[in-house]
Amino acid sequence: MQLHLNATSPFARVARIVALEKGVELEFCWSDPWSDQAELLAVNPLARVPVLVCDDGESIGESLLIALHLDSLSSRTALLPAARQAAVLHLAGQGIGLMEAAFNRVIARKHEGATADQSLLGQRRLRAIERTLAALETDWPARAGEQISLGDIVIAVALDYLAFRLPELDWPARFPGLFECHARLAARESFFSTAFG
Ligand SMILES: N[C@@H](CCC(=O)N[C@@H](CS)C(=O)NCC(=O)O)C(=O)O
User: Fold this and answer.
1) Could you tell me the strand order of the sheet in which 59-61 lies?
2) Is the CB of 9 under 6 A from ligand 1?
3) pLDDT of 162-180, one tens digit each?
């Protein structure tokens, strides 16, 4: 199976971490989605990474859908355990939304300059990030289980992305509950070996 990705995509990192946690081997196809490379367009006309290309040729876009497929491929610890499905999906949904709000802010800055932060959308994204961090400060510790889950992975990657691209938000100093949950995951090989930067 092949994964189309780039090194700074938080969405692609989710797929990589899930594959490592599940022991699924992937061949990487490094790609810059913004340059509309033919290889990427052939598997995803949306020109976005990540994309998983399965051995039978089916291509799957969207990090959470890729994660669910990878989770189903090996019997190692289920990342979406049936007994905690709603709680894990809640966390995964909040984490992916946090990632998208952060990514939109970063990409608006890149293409429109620093004034993008002050625009209506820039301010709206920032409020969404702040509210979600505050909600997760209690939601995540309350829903975290003994075993790592898809929700844990998505939130931890979103937080890493915030620290990487929006360090001025300084979530580690402001949210001790998030800091503690994140620290438990950051030490895992799957996180360590896929770190941004
Ligand atoms: N919802 C998608 C988001 C994927 C996404 O936005 N990927 C970015 C890279 S971090 C991308 O390829 N952007 C190119 C574009 O939006 O044209 C997912 O979860 O996979």
Assistant:
1) 27-30, 2-5, 51-53, 59-61
2) yes
3) 999 999 999 999 999 999 9
Instruction: Give the three-state DSSP class for 1.
Output: coil
CB 49 within 8 A of CB 15: no
Per-residue pLDDT reduced to its tens digit, 28-82: 999 999 999 999 999 999 999 999 999 999 999 999 999 999 999 999 999 999 9
102 with 152, same domain: the answer is yes
Q: From ligand 1's centre to the CA of 130, what distance in Å? A: 21
For residue 197, is it within any domain? no
Per-residue model confidence (pLDDT) at position 103: 97
Minimum CA distance residue for ligand 1 atom 10: 9
Structural domain harbouring 54: 2-73
Residues 51 and 33 in one domain: yes
Q: Is the CB of 47 under 6 A from ligand 1?
A: yes
Nearest CA to ligand 1 atom 13: 48
User: Same domain for 97 and 166?
Assistant: yes
State how many domains the chain has. 2
